[in-house]
């Protein structure tokens, strides 16, 4: 009997459970580029190219092996017709093809998983459900670990994963005598800057990808970014080449400069492997093994290797666990009661704030920002400004090539905006312009002064930082990890605090009215 094997855009691992028993003579693979998901927000053009090009490469590989692939390409959707979701397409195809069974694997998006399962269930078609082996901790593993814990601390989960998989261990002790070396990973570049930087690999589009670029440029011309600049891996072989390049050329310096920002250098020593990981073109085990091997061979220092491995084996698995443990309620959380819309410069980069203009330029060019720009420039501004955490997540999903719902919600709504009130972090990441001044060279190029909270040259970060503490004093004043900040706030006179409130209100009005120019 015939089966329909559903393969989603973030399930492109050729070794996944979906393909364990694929029978070219009997089964069909189903893949869809959905116009509804592509046009729900102003999705970065390169994000559309990434997903569609990577999907089409898998489609053609499967067809090359004689597998029938039911494939809906974006060009098949008549321009002007109502957008159609994955679930819409699947419903039609189930009615048309009438498979005896549907094979599906755990999704990366709660809503999509629900919607697709509902369409299948409504038709009474049996569902063969598969675990996603891409992850080192299954949903059930994580739930078992979390059970009975008062708080979920990434560090304990990470240590367990290190021990379970024997990663960077010497007997039962962590390599180098410590679980983390973060104190070595916070350097700024200083006045002389980063010097000559290793080039990042460029994956030139082949004919298949070039076709996607043309289609996206035509259909989504008004979306942010330019599809023509696309140069990301779209096959497993390219993804492995990107990993090799990182291990050899950038991993050795990655740790030390992990938190540093330098204007005009959006990529620095970062791995930029998250697109390949999150589309499952790259196996996280390969990343972990190769990084550890580089350290054991004396090709990269432990602070860099441990910092990288913690992201892959610790943080990434942890937030995926949190997502499946807490959904669907997690998406609704808004602990700080923030209600603002995203200021317009988050879409077009039109702002006089040098740090934000620089981060936005990188984001528009590459669909990427490294973690400290995401968290401490773009994310920090949104949080201090008071953006609704789900609106921030939607923006994050639209603008970043590597965002998938399970990645974005805990990172964007949770860690960055503190919307979850402390599930993934213990306090909001609040900092003033002084932090950005310490970690980057942006302030020297800016018309604002990071030290000033009020007046014509007041740095909006600094204004909003004090305003944030002032607004949330009742709710957050008792948080031990914010004591230092609140003590400083309480040193300000009532008159100073009132001036800050007025400056923040004026800034919000300006940004809401004009979008850019803040
Ligand atoms: Fe950013 Fe403020 Fe520094 Fe300007 S002064 S670059 S707005 S932190």
Automatic annotation (TrEMBL):
InterPro entries (alphabetical): Crypto/Photolyase_FAD-like_sf (IPR036134), PhrB-like (IPR007357), Rossmann-like_a/b/a_fold (IPR014729), UV-DNA_repair_photolyase (IPR052551)
User: Organism's domain of life?
Assistant: Bacteria
Which PANTHER family does this entry report, sorted A to Z? Answer: SLR1343 PROTEIN
Name it. Answer: Cryptochrome/photolyase family protein
- Source species, please? Spiribacter pallidus
The organism's taxonomy opens as: Bacteria, Pseudomonadati, Pseudomonadota, Gammaproteobacteria, Chromatiales
């Amino acid at each position: 009997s015939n089966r329909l094997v559903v393969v989603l855009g973030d399930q492109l691992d050729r070794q996944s459970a979906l393909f364990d028993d694929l029978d070219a003579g009997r089964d069909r693979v189903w893949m869809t580029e959905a116009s509804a998901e592509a046009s729900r927000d102003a999705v970065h053009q390169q994000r559309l190219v990434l997903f569609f090009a990577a999907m089409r490469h898998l489609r053609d590989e499967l067809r090359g092996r004689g597998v029938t692939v039911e494939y809906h390409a974006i060009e098949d959707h008549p321009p002007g017709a109502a957008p159609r979701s994955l679930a819409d397409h699947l419903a039609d195809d189930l009615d048309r093809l009438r498979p005896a069974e549907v094979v599906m694997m755990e999704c990366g998006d709660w809503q999509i998983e629900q919607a697709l399962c509902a369409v299948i269930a409504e038709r009474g078609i049996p569902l063969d459900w598969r675990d996603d082996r891409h992850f080192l901790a299954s949903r059930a593993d994580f739930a078992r670990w979390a059970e009975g814990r008062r708080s979920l601390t990434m560090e304990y989960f990470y240590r367990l994963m290190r021990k379970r998989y024997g990663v960077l261990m010497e007997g039962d002790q962590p390599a180098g005598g410590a679980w983390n070396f973060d104190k070595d990973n916070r350097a700024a570049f200083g006045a002389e800057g980063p010097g000559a930087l290793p080039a990042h690999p460029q994956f030139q589009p082949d004919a298949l990808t070039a076709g996607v670029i043309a289609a996206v440029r035509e259909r989504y011309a008004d979306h942010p970014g330019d599809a023509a600049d696309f140069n990301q891996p779209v096959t497993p072989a390219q993804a492995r080449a990107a990993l090799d390049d990182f291990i050899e050329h950038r991993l050795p310096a990655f740790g030390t400069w992990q938190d540093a920002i330098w204007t005009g250098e959006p990529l620095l020593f970062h791995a930029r492997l998250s697109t390949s990981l999150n589309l499952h073109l790259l196996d996280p085990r390969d990343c972990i093994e190769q990084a550890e091997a580089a350290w054991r061979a004396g090709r990269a220092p432990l602070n860099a290797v441990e910092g990288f491995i913690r992201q892959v084996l610790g943080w990434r698995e942890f937030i995926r666990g949190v997502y499946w443990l807490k959904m669907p309620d997690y998406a609704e959380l808004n602990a700080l009661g923030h209600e603002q819309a995203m200021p317009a410069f988050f879409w077009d980069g039109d702002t006089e704030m040098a740090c934000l203009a620089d981060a936005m330029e990188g984001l528009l060019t590459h669909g990427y920002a490294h973690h400290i720009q995401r968290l401490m420039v773009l994310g920090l501004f949104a949080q201090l400004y008071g953006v609704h955490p789900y609106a921030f997540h939607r923006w994050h999903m639209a603008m970043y090539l590597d965002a998938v719902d399970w990645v974005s919600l805990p990172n964007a709504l949770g860690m960055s905006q503190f919307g979850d009130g402390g599930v993934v972090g213990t306090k909001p990441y609040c900092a003033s312009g002084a932090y950005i001044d310490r970690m980057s060279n942006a302030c020297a190029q800016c018309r604002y002064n990071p030290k000033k909270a009020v007046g014509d040259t007041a740095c909006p970060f600094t204004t909003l930082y004090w305003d944030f503490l002032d607004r949330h004093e009742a709710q957050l004043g008792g948080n031990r990890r914010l004591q230092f900040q609140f003590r400083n706030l309480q040193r300000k006179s009532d008159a100073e605090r009132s001036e800050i409130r007025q400056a923040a209100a004026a800034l919000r009005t300006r940004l809401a009215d004009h979008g850019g120019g803040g």
